[in-house]
Design a protein that fits this description.
Blueprint: H1 9-15, H2 17-54, E1 60-64, H3 70-80, E2 83-86, E3 89-93, E4 99-104, E5 114-119, E6 127-131, H4 132-137, E7 145-148, E8 151-161, E9 181-186, H5 188-193, E10 199-206, H6 213-233, E11 238-243, H7 248-289, H8 291-299, H9 304-343, H10 357-383, H11 387-391, H12 412-423, H13 425-462, E12 467-471, E13 481-490, E14 493-500, E15 520-523, H14 524-530, E16 537-542, E17 547-557, E18 564-568, H15 569-575, E19 581-586, E20 597-601, H16 603-606, H17 608-646, H18 648-656, H19 661-667, H20 669-701, H21 715-739, H22 744-748
Length: 752
Amino acid sequence: MRNPLYKRLPRELLKDLVKYIIMFLFLSLPIALCSGYMIGNDSMIKTYYEGIDKYTLEDGHFITTNEISSDLISSIEKKENIKIYSINYKDETALLNHTVRIYKISDRDNINKYCVHNGNIPTKDNEIALDRLYLENNKLNVGDKYIINNKEYIISSSISLVDYSCLFKNNTDSMFNANSFTIALVNDNAFNNISNEHLVYDYAYLYPKRLEKNEAHENNTELTKNLYKTLLLNGNSLDSLLAKEDNQAIQFSIEDLEGDLTMMLVFGAIIVFGLAFVFALSAKSQIEREAKSIGTLKAMGYNRFELLISYLILPTITTLLAGIFGNILAYTWLKEYLVGLYYHSYSLPVYTTFYNAKALLYTTILPIIMVFIINLLVVLKTISLPSLNLLRNQLIIKKNKKVMKLSHKINFISRYQIRVVLQNKGTYIALFFGTLFATIILLFGLMMDPLLNHYKEEVIKSQIAPYQTILKVDMDDLDGEKLYVKTLDYNNDEIMIFGLDKYGDDSKYLKNINIEKNKVVIASGLKSKYNLKNGETIKLVEEYADKTYEFVISDSYETTGSLIVFMDKDLFMDTFDSGYLTSYFSDKKLDIADDYVYKIITLDDLIVISNQLSDSMGKVFVLFTAISVILFTLLIFLLAKIVIEKNQSQISMLKIIGYDTFNINKIYNVSTGIITILSVVISTFIAQFFIKIAWDLVLRYKMKGWLDFYIAPYLYPMIFGIGIGAFLIVYLIESRKISRINLSLALKDDNL
C-alpha cells in the first residue's frame, strides 16, 4: 500500500465491526426484499405477455347452441377476416361435487396451448391432466386417482392454460374458484367416451394481428352482430361472445400483478429515505469521534484527497457488499418465495426469471450512490475545517451559549439525565426521526391483516340484501325488490348504477336512503375514494362510447364493499335508453331457471377484494413485519451506540468518581430509553398520517375498488411493546459496553 493511511483500515474495521454489520444488514435486507419483489413481479408480468404469443392466446371466443359446420366456419373466417378454432368442452362432476371442464388435447395444439408443470400429457384413455393450482389446493399429485362421474382416471400431469390464468367458471362470477373448479385435458378417445349431455360448442378466434383495446372492442362488437345474423340464417344461434379484454379468466391475474408493484414501490421509497437518514447519521458520528485524528493527519501533511479516500473506503465497500448480498438473496430465495405467493393464487405458466435493470437501479445502484454521496459530503465538510479546530474537536463554531440552569430540587441523577439529553439533542432528534421511519414500516406491515378483517365485518354489517340477482331479461312479479342496473366508468373504476323502484320507507332493504328528484346518492366508499361532496356533480363515462353522464350528488349512503350510484327509477329510465339489466334484491335465491340469470351477488362476492389481498399478499405482509422489527431494533441499537460512544470520556470520569455500571446505565441508557419510548408513542400517531396519505393515493390511482383505511386499536400497544422489547435488547448490549469502558479515557481527554 502506497498510502500508510490504508494500513489503519483493518484495525478500524475490527474496532467498529458491529457498526459495519448493522450498516450491512440495514442496506442488504431492504434491497433483498424490494429487489426480490420487483424481479419476481416483473418476470411474471413479462412471462405473461410473452405467453400471449408463445401459447397463442385467443382474441376471444364465442359459444353457439349447435355445432358449426366446417363450410360455415370457412365462410365466416373469410367474411370476418378471422381464424376460428373449435375448443368444445364438457362440464362434468367429480368427487365432492367439484366441476371439471374437460377439453381435448388436440384442440389445444394451435390455440390457447397448455403448459406442463409436472408429469406427461395424457396419452391413454384413462389419463387426465388437471390444473396445477387445483391440484395444490386439493392436495393431489401426479399419479393419484381421480374420479369423474364414477369413472376412474390417473392424473398424468399438472398443467396451466393461458386462457385460464384465473379459474373463473363463469365470466360473471365475482371471484375465481381454484378449490372446486378446474380445467382438464384428455385425449380424443377419452373425450368422445364422455356423454355429450353437457357438451358446449365453444369456438376461439384470432385476428390477423393483435389489436389495441378500443379497436378490438369495435371489431368484437361488429363480429357479435354479424355472427348473430349469420348463425340465425343457418339454423343456429349465438349464446355468447367474450373478447379476451373482457375475460376475467385471462385479465384478472395480470391486473393484480401490475397493481401490486405500486404498493412495493411505495414501500421501497420509504426504505430509501430511511437509508439516507441512517447513513448520514452514522457518517456524522464517525467523523465527530475521529475529529482529532483527522486534525493530526492534516497537520502531518496529508492532503484532503488522501484523507477523503481513506475515510470513504470502508463505508463504500460495506454498501457494495450489502448490495451484492441483497441481490443474491433477491435472485434466489426471496424471488422464489414471493413468486410462490402468486402461484398460490393464480394458474400461471412456468415463468422465466428476467434480469431486471429497473430493480437494480432503484433498489441497489441508487441507494449505494446515495450512501456514497452522503458519506462524501459529511467527510469533505469535516476535513475542510482548519487542523486546529479539528484538534480541539470544534466541528461547529459555537457562539456564546448559556447553559440551561437546572433546579437543585431535582436529584443529581435526574439532572445528569437531562444534561445528557440536552448535550446529545442532535442525536436524540435523529433518534426520533429514525424511530418515525421504522414505525412507518412496522405499522404498514402490521396493519393489513386486521384492516382486511375489519373490512369483512363492515361489509357484513352494510350488506344491502342477502341476494342480488341480475337477470338476462326483464321479468316482473318476482319475490323481491326490483331495480335496474348499468355499469359506467369513473376514472379507474367501474361504477354500478342502481335505478331503484323502492327506497326509503317503501323499501325493505334501503330504508335509510332518501333520493331527491333528479339527483343521486352515492355509496360512502365512492365518496371517500374520490373526496366527493354533496352538491358536487359527478361525471360518468360509458366505455367505448362517446357518452358522458352528469349527476348531482345529494347525499351518501353507508355501505362497504361496492362503488354504487343510487337514483330513482324515473331518472334512470330518462337517462339510459339501452344497455341496462333488471335486478332484484331478495332474502333468498329467486325461483327462476338459471338460463335467465346473468349473475347472483352474495356476501362472498362483496368481500372478494379483501379475500384476494389476504390470500395473495398475506405472507408478504408477514415478511414486511419481520424485516420491519429487525430494522427497528438495529436503528435503536445504532443510535444508542452513538450516544455511548460520544460520551465515553464522561462515562469514564463517572467511574473514577465512584459510580457503578447500574447508575451509569440510569444516566445514559435510561435517558435513551425514555426518549425512545416517547419517540415510539409520538411516531405511531404521525406514522398513520403518512401511511393514510400513501394508502389513499395508491387506491385512488392504481387500484380498483376501495378499502377504507383502518388501524386496529390493539396495534398501538403492540408497537409500543415491540419498541420496549427492542430497547431492552439494546439496553443489555450497551450495558455490557459501558462496563468495559476504561477509566483511563477520562485522563486522556483534554476537555475534562
